[in-house]
Amino acid sequence: MDQGLNGRASDLLKEIVTEEPENFVAWASLGKAYDRSGNIMGASEAYRKSLSLKPNQPNVWISFGDFYFRGKSYPQSVSAYQSALKHDPDNAKAHNNLGSAYKEMGKLERAVSHFAAATKIDVGYALAYRNVGDVNIRLGNFSEAVEWLRKATEVAPENLFGRYWLGRAYVGAGQPKTAIPHFLRVL
């Protein structure tokens, strides 16, 4: 949505929550509209209101976590993603996003465990496989990274990020010749 559409959506949603203050869906939607338009205070308030009306909304907790993540408030994003998982322990996106927050905080082992959990829940989640590979590259575990990134490229063969990182992992593992075809696909 562009700014104009977000502004109109926000105005309409404000009318709805004024008339129906218990409408948790409208509050969550208002939070998302505010978030997209850069209204940080409004987004935070609307997400909080929605969750106070109905805490069992994993997707709203994820949106709230993403809001904090984009603002580099990683501890708050961790808390929001954990709340999503409290209500839906098998939510692959919540596990992946929680792993991303832990990765940004330097808690790489925790990050890997959540990325791996996401791949067990959703075997087609290429981003989660890539994230495990990325952390293993950071840790210098290049052979392990190759395995995870190979899975990522099997799930999403045309994804250039996966190809690039697989090439990097092969180089790190001392197999530069094996890396070349992956780098060439990125070009």
Automatic annotation (TrEMBL):
Q: Please give the Gene3D superfamilies that the UniProt record associates with this protein.
A: Tetratricopeptide repeat domain (1.25.40.10)
Q: Which Pfam families does the protein's record reference?
A: TPR_11, TPR_2, TPR_8
List the InterPro entries: TPR-like_helical_dom_sf (IPR011990), TPR_2 (IPR013105), TPR_rpt (IPR019734)
Q: Which UniProt keywords apply?
A: Repeat, TPR repeat
PROSITE patterns given for it? TPR, TPR_REGION
What protein does this entry describe? Uncharacterized protein
Q: Which organism is it from?
A: marine metagenome
